[in-house]
Design brief:
The chain is α+β, with helices and mostly antiparallel strands. The chain has helices at residues 12-20, 22-25, 42-45, 48-57, 70-82, 144-147, and strands spanning 2-6, 100-105, 123-127, 134-139, 163-164, 169-172, 180-185, 191-196, 206-210, 213-220, 233-238. The protein has two domains: 2-105, Cytochrome c-like domain (Cytochrome Bc1 Complex, Chain D, domain 2), CATH 1.10.760; 123-238, Beta Barrel (Lipocalin), CATH 2.40.128.
Length: 242
């Protein structure tokens, strides 16, 4: 669910940070490693010109902020590297008078860290684009520790889209916790095949052909499950010859 926080300092470089940066890096700059790095001590790791370039142009998952320019940008970089110095700069008028700011998304979890609602906790859906109606809907993903105790097919949080082959196969990874890569019948949603990746495949697969043989490949990096290691590999599978 989305969350709002009251602006307690809407002017100066700290105000710029709170309105533009804290949604990802947090009010205290701690971030959420490894996906979102901490900015604590960033001045000791990166020179000011590199920090400036990253803010302006973006890097990796971080978008650029070309709206931050001139004195405002200089003051923000100084704030990140040296802490707050109120005499440096001020935010533009578009940020003044904003009582609240968007502070990110908060997961609604139970005391054990699972979604605090009844399953399914993640689904894969097929929609008829001619009618807008669901053709089928299935639960996608599991929590291995729950499945081991008989609570299977709950669905789970997932990141990454599917692809559909000309032969009618739908391939998808996406699930955060079970690290599975699955193939479904695109017409019915029937599970036809699955395998376990070395890390969660939070990415959309791709398909290609070599010497008449079709392959499906997915980037497996994980990083969404704090209980599991993350990595960075590509895993390719050859489809059976017809």
């Amino acid at each position: 669910m989305a969350a709002l926080a009251e602006n307690t300092d809407s002017t100066g470089p700290k105000g710029t940070y709170m309105s533009q940066c804290s949604v990802c890096h947090g009010d205290t700059m701690t971030g959420s490693p490894p996906a979102i790095p901490s900015l604590i001590g960033v001045g000791g790791r990166l020179p000011p010109d590199q920090i400036t370039a990253t803010i302006t142009n973006g890097k990796g998952r971080m978008p650029g902020f070309p709206n931050l320019v001139g004195e405002q940008l200089v003051a923000l970089v100084d704030f990140l590297t040296n802490g707050e110095r109120k005499e440096l700069g001020s935010v533009g008028p578009e940020l003044l008078g904003m009582k609240y700011r968007f502070s990110g998304y908060r997961r609604f979890l139970d005391p054990e860290g699972y979604p605090a609602i009844a399953p399914p906790w993640g689904t894969l859906n097929a929609i008829d684009l001619n009618t807008g109606e669901y053709l089928w809907k299935i639960n996608l993903g599991e929590y291995p520790e729950l499945a081991a105790h008989g609570m299977k097919n709950t669905g789970s949080e997932n990141y990454g889209g599917p692809i559909v082959t000309a032969g009618g196969l739908l391939f998808i990874g996406a699930t955060n916790f079970d690290k599975k890569f699955r193939a479904f019948d695109k017409s019915t949603g029937e599970l036809l095949w699955e395998t376990t990746l070395p890390f969660a495949g939070n990415a959309t697969p791709a398909t290609y052909e070599v010497n008449g043989r079709q392959f499906v490949i997915i980037a497996a990096g994980g990083g969404k499950d704090p209980k599991s290691a993350s990595g960075g590999v590509y895993v390719a599978f050859a489809l059976p010859k017809r």
